[in-house]
Amino acid sequence: xxxxxxxxxxxxxxxxxxxxxxxxxxxxCGYIHYENPKLIVGCIPEWKNKILLCKRAxxxxxxxxxxPAGFMENHETTAAGAARETLEESNANVRxxxxxxxxxxxxxxxxxxxxxxxxxxxxxxxxxxxxEVQLFDEENIPWDEIAxxxxxxxxxxxxxxxxxxxxxxxxxxxxxxxRK
Amino acid sequence: xxxxxxxxxxxxxxxxxxxxxxxxxxxxCGYIHYENPKLIVGCIPEWKNKILLCKRAxxxxxxxxxxPAGFMENHETTAAGAARETLEESNANVRxxxxxxxxxxxxxxxxxxxxxxxxxxxxxxxxxxxxEVQLFDEENIPWDEIAxxxxxxxxxxxxxxxxxxxxxxxxxxxxxxxRK
Lengths: 180, 180
Description:
The structure is a homodimer of 180-residue chains.
Chain A: E1 11-14, E2 23-26, E3 32-33, E4 38-47, E5 50-56, E6 65-66, E7 69-71, H1 78-90, E8 94-105, E9 110-119, E10 130-136, H2 149-164, E11 170-173
Parallel strand pairs in A: 4-9, 8-11
Antiparallel strand pairs in A: 1-2, 2-3, 4-5, 4-7, 5-6, 5-10, 8-9
């Protein structure tokens, strides 16, 4: 059971005229509720040959490492959102953001957009969202403790491009994990 | 006044613990309603030296020309959404999609992601959303009758890159039009 945000009455799943997918339509006022994928924006913060990772102090994936990233907010740009998330999670400021990877995750209706970025200084610290914040060399990346598949793939692509000496923009899809 | 989708009671604007922005929070069950930017995905369908435009048969911007594009749906990839919109608006099939432009439009909380794509055949037709569908040479693009700023900018970038003989991925921002 779900309710109309406009009038509080119950909604029913139906396909509106001219549409092709079922939506929650209000049984009383007819308002149509659309749900669409969410954008997650974040950074690969670079300092010299190292990159900044955060150990998650919150669920999901508490205790695992990630690049700073989070849901894009209304009324900001993707790059501003990526910089904001970096500041919130690691108290680090970044500049020179360059779009690097876009990963579709259709089974959870998310799209990740990750930017390469430069730390403005080697200054960062823990936050309510991160129990540890640390610069890593490629050899020390905790590959078995990365929180999210899209982040792991972004890191792999990053070091692959870096080894080639040329960064490109990459689009890919993260499939649902196989059920055990 | 807005209502809770979970229980139908009224919501109030407040900043949840650990958050930094006001959200619609249910006064009864406490459910937090997040609203995030929407992704619009679409194509620049190419056939030889021409590209396909659609004349809008629906609001907004009824009667103006656009590239086929629309809101990304849950459980699809950005490229699948772009191909679906192309099929819906112009009855044209596309292949070989390559991400080309990403435009943030923060004042309306939208992000456009446009792909270059090849028509599988020079076959297309009008649809409930498009009163005309037509292949255009660069010289014949109806620049003064393009429906959306992000689409016009995508077209400009397309012809600029094509003149250089090299297509790159571009990120930009569309600012709110100046008030008259």
